[in-house]
Input
Amino acid sequence: MIFWSEGSPQTAIGPGQARDALVSALTSIGPLKRVIAVPPDCTRVHSLAGPLTEAAWEYYGEKLEDVLPATGTHSPMTDAEIGAMFGRVPPGLFRVHDWRGGTRSIGEVPAEFVKEVSEGRVHYGIPIEVDRLIAEGKHDLVLSIGQVVPHEVIGMAGHAKNIFIGAGGAEAINRTHFLGAAYGMERIMGRAETPVRQVLRYGADRFARHLPIVYVLTVVGQAGDGGLALRGLFIGDDEECFRRAAALALEVNVEILDEPLGKVVVYLDPAEFKSTWLGNKSIYRTRMAVAEGGELVVLAPGVSRFGEDPAIDGLIRKYGYAGTPKILDLTEREEDLRQNLSAAAHLIHGSSEGRFTVTYCPGRLTRPEVESVNFRFAELDEMMKRYDPRRLAEGFNTMPDGERIFYISNPALGLWAHTGRFPRGREVGA
Output
C-alpha cells in the first residue's frame, strides 16, 4: 500500500512539506504502541533521513523506543555524528548494529535461485539475516527510512536493502556483495531489477512478511544553488513505493554524457568519507564515464584508512584493488577472502579494471600505503591548490593552463556514465 507518493525532477519538497507528508502517512497507518526507526548512518547524511527520523520521533514520542542506524559494515556512529544528523532525537534511543554477532537468520534463499539470477556466476545460498532488535523486538512498526540512489551492489539503494543488508548479518552482507561483483557492477548500477534485488525480494516475500515494515524513501538531487533538493518522497509497505522512487532516481541521479571523460576530479567531504571503503564511491560512480587511458583524481582530506573495521582494512592492505579476474582467482585460492566476500567484492569495485588510472590524494595515508593497494599517490595540498573545490563548478571546468576537467563535489549523489556504457532511454528495470 502507498501512504504517500510525490516527486518529479523539478519538484523541491521543503522541510516543512516533508514533515507534513510523513505525519500524514503515519497517521493513516493508525495507532501503534512500539516503534523502531531504521535510518541510514552519517555516511548517507545527504539522504535527508535525519530530519525525517526527527519528525517521526516528534510524532510518536515515547512510542518510538529504538533508533537503529543501518550501518552495515560501517563503524558505529559517534555522539557528535548522531547529534549532527538527527537533531533533537535523544541519544539514548540509539542502538548499535552488530553485523558480526548481533543478528538472527530468518530464512535462506536457496542456491538454485541464486545460481539462476546470477546466470551461473554464483552457486551458494544466501541467508536472510536481520538485527535481533528487529527480529525479536516485538515492535508493531519498523520504520525503514532511506534514500534511493544508484548503487554498486544492488543497482538502486534503498527499500529492502536498508533492512536486510544495512541491518543484516555478516554472511548475508558478504554473499550479496560478492553476488553483485561477480555478476558485474556495470550491469547493475542504475538498475532497479538486479540479482541482489531479486534475492532480497525472495527473502522478504517468503521470510519477513511478519515484520511490520513501512518504507520511507527519498530521492535527493542537487539544487541550483549547490545545495540539496528533495525531489521525491515515497512511503509505503510494498515494492510499489520503491519502483516509483527508482524511476525518479534514474532521472535525477544519473548523468549521461555524450563522450567519455579524459580527466575527472572528485572531492570527498572529510565529514563523510574517512576510508577508501566509503571514498571509493568516487570510482564506483564515475567508472562508466572515464575514458580508456583517462585519469580519476580523488581529493580525500578525511581519508585515514582503507577499511571500516580492522579485519577488512587488513585484507585491503594485503591484496589491494586488483580488478575482477585477479580477485576472483584469489577468492578461489585464499581462505581469508572466502571468509570475507564483501571485502573481495570491494576490491573489485575499487579497481578501474586497468581502463584508467586512479590518483588518490588522502589527508592521512602515506604514499607507500596508497601505492601498495595499486592506486597512484599525489600530495593533497598540492592538488587542492590546483583543483580548489571552492572555485570549481560542477561538471566541466577549464583550468588556467587550458586543462579541461570534469568536477564532482559529492559522488554519493549520483552516477555518471557516457552513452557507450549507459545508453539513453534505458529502462530502470532493464
